[in-house]
From TrEMBL:
It is a single-pass membrane protein. It is found in: Membrane. Residues 12-23 have a biased composition (Basic and acidic residues). The chain crosses the membrane at residues 58-80. HflC and HflK could encode or regulate a protease. InterPro entries: Band7/mec-2_domain, Band_7, Band_7/SPFH_dom_sf, HflK, Membrane_HflK_N, Stomatin_HflK_fam. Residues 1-29, 343-383 are annotated as: Disordered. This is Protein HflK. Keywords: Membrane, Transmembrane, Transmembrane helix. PANTHER family: MODULATOR OF FTSH PROTEASE HFLK (PTHR43327:SF2), STOMATIN-LIKE PROTEIN 2, MITOCHONDRIAL (PTHR43327). Its main location: membrane. Residues 370-383 have a biased composition (Low complexity).
Amino acid sequence: MAWNEPGNNGGQDKDPWGNRGGRDQGPPDLDEIFGKLGRKLNGLFGGSGPSLGGGGSAAGLGVIAVVGAVIWGISGFYTIGEAERGVILRFGEYNRIEQPGLNWKANFIDDVRTVNVEAIRSLRGSGLMLTKDENVVRVEMDVQYRVADPKKYLYAVTSADDSLRQATDSALRAVIGDAVMDEILTTGRQVIRERTQVEINRIIDRYDMGIQVVDVNFQTARPPEQVKDAFDDAIAAREDEERFIREAEAYRNDILPKATGRAERLKKEALGYKEKTVNEAQGEVAQFEKLLPEYAAAPDVTRSRLYLEAMESVFENTSKVLIDSKSGGGNLLYLPLDKLMSQRPQQSSGAQPVSQPNGIELERSSTDTQSQSGRSNSRQGRF
């Protein structure tokens, strides 16, 4: 119901300023308002002076001004976080950079915009791009960066984040357009990542956006869906080729050292056998050269000695005993029967030959052997 509508408030009209019946139209007197406010402030601060009239309105305004100044000064304190920096604008124009901690600004004059300079931010660039060999590939790349200069980040360009996104897209398209499809999908990913980071830094330095690129990650690179199966087969074949090459290299690295070592061992054994044979031959030649004068002086004696030495070397590992038939039967021979019996393998009853230098072998029967063993206490035998 409108304020001047008939019947309002029980038939009494009331205007917006509280006048009933439409009397005294218009706003209340300003002096009256300030007077009431002054009286309230005097009561609040314990004042007992006269109410604000024409002369007391100045004192009331002074009190109001002081209270407002106090409130204005207190409200200007603010805090900046440890990882943040505050950019102060005075009447909309850059003034200074505030460090972390408790600071103060002039309200309605200064404005503060905080920027986190330690947080690592991330943006992703992707899209279908044309390669050097006229193939289409979809590439995704993630760029990590942080704010290096808050002032430049906020005011060097309209939007530093959008500018970096456009710079990433431009740099990525330039690098992809200078590479072939196989390099992008297989072996050239690291090179593309490094070249893209260099190109992004070049653009950032030129526009001076106050941003520092921390890392660039080459996420995925894949061909269009229409030819994806064919490219997958090509990539699988390439991977199989690299795997077979690595397996062959591993087999070569395992076999080649062994074969080289075996060949070296055989060569050294052959050289050793050669030196041994040559030395033995040279020793025998030297021995015969020393025996030659003796043989020329006494042929029979030398021949007999050589014969005995040869027989000794032949029969040294046998159980046969050689005796001299020319020595006669009166000599007493001492035979090492215990060693002969230990060297002789256990056999069934049989004959044991005894050789003589003239080639005649004497056989002793088993009964003679037993009788001989019965007399072995003295470890003597007579022939």
